[in-house]
Amino acid sequence: MKEIKLTINGREIVAFEGDSLLDAANANGIEIPTLCHHESVRVYGACSLCLVEAEGMPKLLRACSTKVSEGMNVNTESDRVVRARRVALELLMSDHKGDCVAPCSLNCPAGTDCQGYIKAIAQGDDRKAVEIIKEKLPLPASIGRVCPHPCESNCRRALVEEPMSIAFLKYFAADRDLESETPFTAEKEADTDKTVSVIGGGPAGLTAAYFLALKGHKVTIYDAMPQMGGMLRYGIPEYRLPKKVLQKEIDLIESLGITMVNNTKIGTDITFDEIREKSDATLIAIGAWNSMSTRTPGEKLEGVVGGIDFLREVALGNSVSIGKNVAVVGGGNTAMDACRTAVRLGAENVYVIYRRTRAEMPAEDIEIEEAMEEGVKFLFLTNPAEYTGENGSVNTVKLQVMELSEPDESGRRAPVPVKDKFEYLSVDTVIAAIGQKVNPTGFEGIELNSRGIISADEFTFRTNLPDVFAVGDATNRGASIAIAAIGEAQKAAGVMDSFLKGDVVPYIAPFVSEKNVTAEDLAHKEKLPRAVMPHRDAEERKHDFKEINLGFSEEDARKEAKRCLECGCHDYKDCSLIRHANRYEIHPERFVGSHHTGFTEERLVTIRRNQDKCILCSLCTRVCDEVAKKGILGLVGRGFDTVIKPEFNNEETITACKECKKCAEVCPTGALEILLK
Q: Cα angle vertex 580, ends 518, 21, to 5°?
């Protein structure tokens, strides 16, 4: 066969007479995207993705149908080609109605594949569930217990009755894995001889260390506290997160070869510069460990303490004297942790002071309810005006009575003081849990923003120092939930890995297709009750720090997991359409217009066909005709309204279709799903 020499993207290659440009490129490891081409069927040339630019040719060429010729000089990624491909993809995606990823996953700051691990639990494969979870976070048993689960607020099951119990299912599977003889451990890549220092052993630091170690880098974590865990250990009470569970997960992270150095404070035990000198890259994940001031007169009195400081002293096992009457200022989960801890330390009267109503409290409802069950009294629409005391110790809180203003343009009602209306509360201790802030001491040279927080690039997590990255509560937006810090750390680890390999590749959130679903769309679904987490009685639990929740039974967990609607696309990880869409950073909103009327075709017996995801590439019809030799599928209608439908003429045809499945195997978008029967 005659050899043909040509150039593709500046590289001289050899092909054979009769080869297409697409074949020649593929044979030489050069990818030219396509959606309608498959080696088993004749060339079709419909998707316009395989367009390339050839020197001396005025028009772009379809690589699938253009034959190679001697001396051709082809560019597969010129500006002109990229523009054409981008438009083609934008037009396809503008009419593509389907969920690439389930809404729960989209609302998880770490991007956890909730649908994937819930399906594994439903199928009884808890180890697989943990494997899926650990693609995004290495602390599932801990996070499953404490996460305020933003995933659940986006769960479509709520349109039927109640959202899935996503976090507790994570907790269930992770506990079963930890209790097994061989808990799941991900495989490491080959050693790179690159060294990374992580400053801070909280959820962000542990997560970054985990993913960097999996990439083969040598990682050392430095932490100021006696043990790793950060706020998971020192900011969340034992009754919510048993530290033996946390420690098991930390031990698994350490088993990847990570060096963990505790009781090491930056600027005191080691300098920031010393750490940088011994590292190829450094990550700052120091969290926000200082309590915010209430700016209330008298807050310097003895007995007025910060929420995080109080919880840390209790977690360290230090003697904490709070007296009989304790007031907690704040409405978040830290305030709930503080008031419930005060109950367990023996306080007789515990009050929560909050300047708005319960409806505005940011704490989880379950935390508020359980605090009330344990005897905590809530003083809504009050705010500390002054702390007073005797002999330097606080004994009274002067409370300003508040009311909510008229709604502003956004509908928000702000708390405003009621003139000259005050109440007084006798106290022995005031715990101010209104927020946290970072302490950047020891990190001189790192640029801070106007709020005194470490400034890091939104996409690279890089600070003003080129080899130093930063994530979590210490950066940009300040303190948030643990899963947010974990999500940032996971993404930063990927960027740091690219930096260590010689080129910083920023994190860009992938484009995904999303579908609008209403309660009416799900009206046919059977209503099934959400699993209720069993827990200890309030009168029993409020006297100790043993874990409150008792965990799901296997029966309840499997049953709950089967409530999942499986919103995300079954073929997302292998979908050619979405892979190419993210390769070219598309914006299909530029082509807003009419959509095809979608439907789900069930007559293919063992295959479900979703017209909303079909791009009319006709691969299925051509494979059915040319490979299966059945011709069951065909194009119906003309122009914009064209759809693909089956035609079953007899029982023999139905049987042949049932056993074939070749159409689904070549579908590039997930429009065809093989049903497991």
A: 145
Query: Are 382 and 295 contained in the same domain?
Result: yes
Confidence band (pLDDT; 50, 70, 90) for 497? Answer: very high
**Which range has the top average pLDDT, 210-214, 595-599, 608-612, 673-677?**
210-214
Domain count, the chain: 5
Residues 442 and 496 in one domain: yes
Residue 261 inside a domain? The answer is: yes
CA distance 251 to 119: 27
Q: State the Cα–Cα distance between residues 387 and 368, nearest whole angstrom.
A: 25
CA distance 143 to 471: 18
The Cα–Cα gap between 80 and 89 comes to: 14
Residue type, 616: L
Asked whether the CA dihedral 648, 652, 653, 655 is positive or negative, the reply is positive
Residue type, position 2, single letter: K
Domain that holds residue 362: 291-436
Average pLDDT over residues 216-220: 98
Among 17-21, 32-36, 441-445, 646-650, which stretch is predicted with the lowest mean pLDDT? 646-650
- Residue bearing the bigger pLDDT, 659 or 248: 248
The residue out of 414, 436, 458 marking a domain boundary is 436
State how far the Cα of 453 lies from the Cα of 479, in Å rounded to an integer: 10
Question: Is 127 strand, coil or helix?
Answer: helix
CATH number at residue 45: 3.10.20.740
With a CB cutoff of 8 Å and minimum separation 6, the contacts of 85 are: 33, 48, 49, 51, 580, 584
Cβ density class 272-303: b for 16+ within 10 Å, e for less: beebbeebbbbbbbbbbbebbebebebbebeb
Per the domain annotation, does 589 fall within a domain?
no
Residue-wise pLDDT for 257-296, tens only, equals 999 999 999 999 999 999 999 999 999 999 999 999 889 9
Query: 676 pLDDT exceeds 70?
Result: no
Cα-to-chain-centroid distance, residue 211: 15
For residue 605, what pLDDT is reported? 78
Alpha-carbon distance of 456 to 628, in angstroms, equals 56
